[in-house]
Amino acid sequence: MEEDSTLQSFQQKVSELLLRHRSFLDIISKFQESNARVNRALIKAVTECGCIQVHGERQNFPSSFSPAWLASQLNTHLHGDLCDHCLDIVRSEMGKNLFYLAALCNLLELRLDQVIDQEMAKLRTFGIFNLR
Ligand SMILES: [Zn+2]
After folding, report:
1. Whose CA, among 36, 53, 124, 132, lies 20 to 30 Å from 118?
2. How far is Cα 47 from Cα 102, in angstroms, rounded to an integer?
3. The domain containing residue 73 runs over which residues?
């Protein structure tokens, strides 16, 4: 018997609780909307709270480099740390986004843990060559 993981429990709970927006069209639009709300919460942390700042600039990629050197040189463009208030909001919005991802998995009869396991296997196989 397979052990029930946290992700499986979460996915099951989503299935039990999702009464509205059960259609595929509703789920994919709510998934996209919830993703936009994660981005909006992060943008408000910059523009309204100010606990984090974004300093964008061009990334310079040399013609040859080692992965370790590259990781130490690339800039996230992000400065500061989310304050507790913004962190709560971002976590909440990410949770809603995961809710709709789990709902989409349920509709397509996919297991969220298997989606993550498959991605993890790709990361392990391709390592640094899996750059995105
Ligand atoms: Zn903040």
Report:
1. 36
2. 31
3. 23-54+67-127
